[in-house]
Amino acid sequence: MRDREALLIQTLQKSGASFGIGDDGVRIGELVYAMDAFNEGSHFKRGWMSLEKLAYKALAVNVSDLYAMNAKPLYALLSLSIPRDFSAKEVTSLSLGIAKACEAFGVKLIGGDTILSSLLGFSFTLIGQASKKTLQRRGMKGGDYLAYTGRVGDSLKGLTTLLRGGRLSSQSRFIRPTLRPKLIAEMTPWLRGGMDISDGIFFECERLSRLNHLGFYFTKPLPKRLGRSGEEYEMLLVIPPKNLSKIRRIAQKHRTPLHLFARAKRGSYRAPCLGHHS
Amino acid sequence: MRDREALLIQTLQKSGASFGIGDDGVRIGELVYAMDAFNEGSHFKRGWMSLEKLAYKALAVNVSDLYAMNAKPLYALLSLSIPRDFSAKEVTSLSLGIAKACEAFGVKLIGGDTILSSLLGFSFTLIGQASKKTLQRRGMKGGDYLAYTGRVGDSLKGLTTLLRGGRLSSQSRFIRPTLRPKLIAEMTPWLRGGMDISDGIFFECERLSRLNHLGFYFTKPLPKRLGRSGEEYEMLLVIPPKNLSKIRRIAQKHRTPLHLFARAKRGSYRAPCLGHHS
User: Fold this and answer.
1) Which residues of A touch B13 (CB under 8 A)?
2) Nearest-10 Cα torsion for B20, B26, B29, B30
3) Residues B203, B247: one domain?
4) Is A278 a known ligand-binding residue?
């Protein structure tokens, strides 16, 4: 996937058609936009959770992109692919999941469209209010610390359980990710960069490396089960050394674990392996 | 499709999650948003035209939604589903089509994402600058004239040719729709409503009927091959009687045929048959 995506972006950029691609979302004036697909086959299998929970997660992962830029979600558009064999009850479950997520995140659904398809698919566009300072992926400097918030690894564990035919509790982070807008808002002025972990820490580090033309050295070895775990939606933070104690204090105040694991250095970094959906 | 879409929208509206659904796009402050999927299987077959032309059309039909509200397209986000078996050459063709359309319509692609899938699919979100007066679907009054612009019917003819295994010239309206932003801009102050014809005149009339709680009487019988022809992207106009001569003059100035065919009356209207993609 990555090579074809890179080719697409490269061709588009050469033509002058695109710019700004690379962050979770893009800021234009006072608004931030993000668009992420969440599709059967690529991102989930239908039996993994109820349709209501799936729909909720589909919006939540898009909201995560806005939070990760320190923006406040306001509006959403949805292009929904509904399987041809869906009953009225199934359509209602989808609607309920979307409605619950809209309420939980304070988002109004303002438009979009629906099509019949062989697979279930959500493509949300989120529109958010930018804050004074937008958190971005570019701006990292040599010596900056890399850290992740909270707990990482549960998502891959949940996925493994599902792939083996097991079931997850509805409290599982894989079903309902933990988002941390208040923590992000308070930290942003002291950070040099940040993003949410959707494709696993290793792969997000590769993205940071490419965008910032820097590499990393790991101060703590990251086990594969952590580094490869995608769909975590915890935050990956780029912390300038002089603000490290400030960031630690904010994390403590929010009772959120902060795990420092690498520092930026000259060079480049490539992930040792692909994320779970390639 | 229509029943499931209606159920979805109804459930979402009851929950308070959504509003404003019904127009081609939605205006929020000075911006107008539109989102439309263009998917293999539902909207096209891959062999119907080159990948470059397909990608161009995918953006054009979204631009049409903004023009139909008298808005100027500025930015686009794209969620692109790329078939797993696509070669680098095929990805490049897609990029070229997108780039050409971006240039033709003055749109900058600012973000989105790509996923691997079994089918090719484009889901664009367009962001446009609203004009002083936005053209909408609501506002029709009894006695108003309905008219369509240009030539309608070619798209269904083109589709029929393709479904029979024939080929279309690259000049075909089915491949490259004719959009009329200048005409729309000049007419908007004198219109009571308008929309582009994406699902056929009959079905668009049904939409107008539902939104405005009015029916129609046909002053000129519309042959099925015209009324059912979708993906025309000509305009359907709602003209107050007092402005009819003004609208006629503007159409003449732009050398665009104007076909009056119905007037609004009390009651409701239901399309005699479905469009080609349901």
Assistant:
1) none
2) -170
3) yes
4) no
